[in-house]
Design brief:
Helix content is about 45%, strand content about 15%. It is an alpha+beta fold and about 120 residues long. The protein has one domain (about 5-115): Glutaredoxin, CATH 3.40.30.10. A hairpin with a 5-residue loop joins strand 3 and strand 4 (about 90). Helix 3 crosses helix 4 (about 95-105). It is globular and about 50 Å long. About 25% of the residues are buried.
Length: about 120
C-alpha cells in the first residue's frame, strides 16, 4: 500500500501530464508517433519536448501525439500550432532540434526556418 504522500505525488504527476495534453492552451505541439516516427526517434523527440517545455517554464502549450502524417522520410515530424499564427511543420526533429524549437519558436516567437518541412 502506498502512503498518502506517495499517492498525492502520483496524482500530481498524472495531473501535470494530463494538463500538457489537454485543456485551454495558447497552442499545441503534435509529435507524429506512427511506427515510422517511432523508428526514426520520435520517442526521444517527445521526451525532449517535455523536458524543454518544463525547463523553459512553458505551461500554456499542450504536447500531444498523432499517428503517421504520410511523410515518412521526414520523421520525426512535428507540428507547432500557436493561436493566431499559421501552423508550422518541422521535419527530422531530434532531441536537440526539439529544444531549439521550444526556445526559439514557442518561447521566442521565431520559426526555426532550417527545420521547416513543407
Amino acid at each position: 500500500m502506498k502512503s498518502l504522500e506517495e499517492l498525492r505525488k502520483i496524482r500530481d504527476e498524472v495531473k501535470k501530464s494530463m494538463d500538457m495534453r489537454e485543456g485551454a492552451h495558447r497552442g499545441k505541439v503534435v509529435v507524429c508517433m506512427g511506427t515510422c516516427g517511432i523508428a526514426a526517434g520520435a520517442r526521444e523527440t517527445m521526451n525532449s519536448f517535455m523536458r524543454s517545455l518544463e525547463e523553459q517554464g512553458v505551461s500554456d502549450v499542450a504536447l500531444t501525439a498523432a499517428g503517421c502524417a504520410g511523410f515518412c522520410e521526414q520523421e520525426p515530424l512535428v507540428e507547432v500550432d500557436i493561436k493566431g499564427r499559421e501552423p508550422v511543420r518541422y521535419g527530422h526533429v531530434d532531441g536537440a532540434a526539439a529544444a531549439r524549437i521550444v526556445e526559439q519558436h514557442i518561447v521566442g516567437g521565431k520559426v526555426v526556418d532550417e527545420l521547416v518541412f513543407g
